[in-house]
Amino acid sequence: MTFKLALLVTALALSHNASAKTFRWASASDIPTLDIHSQNNALGNGVHAAVYESLVYYNSKSFKIEPQLATAWKLTSPTQMRITLRKGVKFSDGSAFTADDAVFSLNRAMAKTSNYGVYAQGIDKVVRVSDSEIDILLKAPNPVLMNQLTELRMMSQAWSEKNKATEPKDIKTKDESFSHRNAMGTGPYVVDSWQPDQKLVFKRNPNWWGKLDGNVTEIVYTPIKSEATRAAALLSGELDLVLDPSPQDLGRLRTNKALKVLDGAENRTIFFGMDQFRDELPGSNIKGKNPLKDVRVRKALGQAIDIVTLNKVIMRGLSQPTGTLISPQVNGWSKKVDARYPFSIEAAKKLLLEAGYKDGFEVDFACPNNRYINDEEICQAVAAMWSKIGVKAKLRTLPLVTYFPMIQRYEASIYMLGWGVPTFDALYSLQSLVRSVGVGGDGNYNLGRYSNPQMDALVERIKKETDMSNRNDLIGKALELSHTDVSHLVLHNQIIPWAMKKNIDVVHRADNRIDWRLVKVN
């Protein structure tokens, strides 16, 4: 090699390294799977969007629906949607994305082992019209179909068939499919490596059809359970962004001149669900009956929670106390449905006395310890509050990866859940949380198995009602019924701060996910 050529090679290498930007970020838990139709988990959904794309997606600044793998959509009848697919799109292996892949992906989302049926609710079948068009045929008019499609990402049919991954991994079992640890999509990045609970690395997809507004060539995600360790890694410069800094660390992060904190209200509500199905609670000292089936007991548990103390002491103000299952950003919310039952130990004790539990009772209480802001601390505080009315909550905490399969097997008497609303419409919450357990997403996270025929009838009407005034009236009635029945013990809506280096540009989203197309390292 000549001296001039060696200089040129060195210069090119330096130029390439100068343009290469790595973005390192962390939060408390790892994603549960790389399978895009397996576990409906908000962190996982946001991470999946780096690799897999949907037909449409929300604009991160306006939150209006915009084209992604679809370029146009039109109702050809009240129950038939014609979707025009983007031409020239390739998967990261170079194969073309076609209508066959779109039909396959939507059908895969409706499989028995899928946790995404709630996004496909109302779909009867999907058919190929041409290589670049599909029709979605509906069982009835669906006013939020396009909102639902933002969460149904596209997968290669050929890749899935080759790797025996035509059905999603069943999260209730320990069985693994190829798609659980491997991914191949049309998105801006590809999975370079994944060591569960240690590190997930993405690299740029050279076959991506789009153009990044950001400049990141590599994404490195590290799940770090310890709040102190996450903060220390950001302060030392090892991380560029922490998605979930603890309220206790925010003061010193805000005053550090090398950092900045972006705050925003998330469309996620934190609550407790209760087993209202079993005739006897496992592990309880009450035999032959289930105290949680009595609305007076459920109301007593709710009135024994000092929400003001939780907000001030545990959450350090990073919460909006609420009395309903949806946040203000979600269609259907109103001040009327947001009212809480008042905190009162005396009232709670009186309700337990009336229900026949003067001395209280023992109950299993399960919570995650690395999913929501101060989740374990909240549950510890609530257990102490319940002890004041004689309820002995036997608290057990688990990491996200084992917690969610456990509660989906109905193995918890009282459990914590945080429910974000990707569709920004109350139907998503009502169908998942208070509709009786059924098919097509009905009650898929109704893990206490609450059931009320009146609620089921309201939800079925909301699914089909296209007049928005009538529809919102029905939503209000359903939320009021949930409040009256005390279907859940609602706590608060999360306020999410993102802490990052000053040289990082991101757009804070109400769904608490990073838009990978926009990230800049300056």
CATH superfamily of the largest domain: Dipeptide-binding Protein, Domain 3
Estimated structural class: alpha+beta
Cα Rg: 24 Å
Helix content: 25-40%
How many DSSP-defined strands?
19
> What is the number of helical segments per DSSP (H or I, 4+ residues)?
16
CATH architecture of the largest domain: Roll
Note the main sheet: 11 strands, mixed
Task: Give a brief description.
This protein has 16 helices and 19 strands. It has helices at residues 3-19, 42-48, 99-109, 145-149, 157-162, 178-181, 227-236, 250-255, 295-303, 307-314, 345-355, 375-387, 400-408, 426-433, 453-464, 468-485, and strands at 22-27, 56-58, 65-67, 70-77, 80-85, 123-130, 133-138, 189-195, 199-204, 218-223, 241-242, 259-274, 319-321, 361-368, 391-398, 414-420, 488-501, 504-505, 520-521.
List the defining traits of the structure above.
D-Maltodextrin-Binding Protein, domain 2; four-stranded antiparallel sheet; Dipeptide-binding Protein, domain 3; 522 residues; alpha+beta; eleven-stranded mixed sheet; single chain; 2 domains; disordered N terminus
Layout of secondary structure:
Blueprint: H1 3-19, E1 22-27, H2 42-48, E2 56-58, E3 65-67, E4 70-77, E5 80-85, H3 99-109, E6 123-130, E7 133-138, H4 145-149, H5 157-162, H6 178-181, E8 189-195, E9 199-204, E10 218-223, H7 227-236, E11 241-242, H8 250-255, E12 259-274, H9 295-303, H10 307-314, E13 319-321, H11 345-355, E14 361-368, H12 375-387, E15 391-398, H13 400-408, E16 414-420, H14 426-433, H15 453-464, H16 468-485, E17 488-501, E18 504-505, E19 520-521
Parallel strand pairs: 1-10, 1-11, 14-15, 14-16
Antiparallel strand pairs: 2-3, 4-5, 5-7, 6-7, 8-9, 9-10, 11-17, 12-16, 12-17, 13-17, 18-19
